[in-house]
Structures are given as C-alpha cells and as structure tokens.
Design a protein that fits this description.
Length: about 240
Amino acid sequence: MAGFAVVMTFLTWGFILTIVSIVLSIILFKFAKRSFPTSTYAAKRYRILNAAAPFLALGWLVAALILHAFISNHIAHQSVGYSPDPYVTLPNGYVVGSLNTYSGYVRAPGVTTDVPWVGRGYVRGIIDLEFHDGRFVGTYLDSKSQFQPQGTDHVKNFVFDTRDQSIQTSDTNTAGDFTSQQNSVHQDQNAYWNLYAQNRHSWPTVVFWVILLGGWGALIAVIQLLKPADSLSEHGSI
C-alpha cells in the first residue's frame, strides 16, 4: 500500500545518501589533507570538519524534513508532501483528503471517518467533489465488502450541507468498481483532487528549502571560516 511504499522510499534514499556521504567524506578528507598537510591544530580541525561535513549535511536534511512535517501539519494544517494520507484543511475548517491515497473523503472539523461510507459529519469513498453555497456536492462509490455488506457497488450522489452537517444521498443507478473510481478521481474535471490541489499551500515547501539551503550554506561558511592560513608550507599528518 501507499504507506509501505513511502517507508521503503525513505529507507532506500537513506541507504543511498549514507553511502554517498561516506564516499564524499573520504574524498573531502583526502583533499583537505593534501591542501593542509601540517600537524597544526587548525589543519587537523579543518580535515576533521571536512570529513564530517557530508554527515552533518545529511543530518540537517533529516532535521529539515522533520521540521517541514511539523510546519505542514500544525501550522499550515495540511499533510506534508510525502505523506501516504494526504489532506488539506479548507478555509471553513473542513478537511478534504485521501486515506492511503485511495479513498477520498470530506469531513467536518473534529470528526473522524468511520467504516460506513457516509456517517455523521463525513463522506468517504469520494469520486467527484465541489463546494457551492455552503454545501459539498459530489459522488462517492458505495462499494460492497465484508465491512460494508449493505453496499450497492453503485456510484451515488451526495449533498453535504455544512450549515447543519446534514447529508443527503441519491443513487445514480450506475454500477462502479474500484478501478473505475481510481480513474475518475484523477481524470474527472470535478474530481476531489482538484479541490485538494486548489487549497494546498505551497509556502511550507518554500520554508523547507530556505531552512535546508540556509543550513547547508552556514555549514560551508563555517568550514571556510575555519580554513587554516597555511597551505603545503609544512608537512605532517593527523
């Protein structure tokens, strides 16, 4: 599922970046030792700092990603870009999202989605979704399963009135299935992903890059600041 894919992606990139950091550490250490081969404290410190730089940069990347997730969830009130359960909070406080990227939903503030496709304060299994005059209007797939034995496997209309949280549904008498739903949610002009995209803030990503590049820039500045004055004038080893 999507959550497992996200975990595997992070583990894969973590392994790759660790290997890259080790290789860069060796290269930078040898470069620093060749440039400043003296046995002075400043030269030793510079060589060690160069060797540690790739790991410090990798650690800062991890810290920036964690901070990015915190800012996205607690300040922007939306999921971070690599979340397996993406969601955004609309200006009226309602949340539009997708459970495990497969099951779209809209829910009222403070409401948690449950097993039924339509419940108090929420609708899930959404295909199309629009918001007009205080009402969410759209369609959802009333799938039949072991958890929903009363399902019809039909696409149904719904009107979710945010003023009193009442939900009215009607059957389109159109058969649907999971595959057709997935095609619709990404292809329909009124798919819920469009409302999701329209209300997603981009500034948390900008903040992430500012923090990341700012930290890396500060690391480079510190290394340059601690660069010894002597170069190849004396020879020694660490």
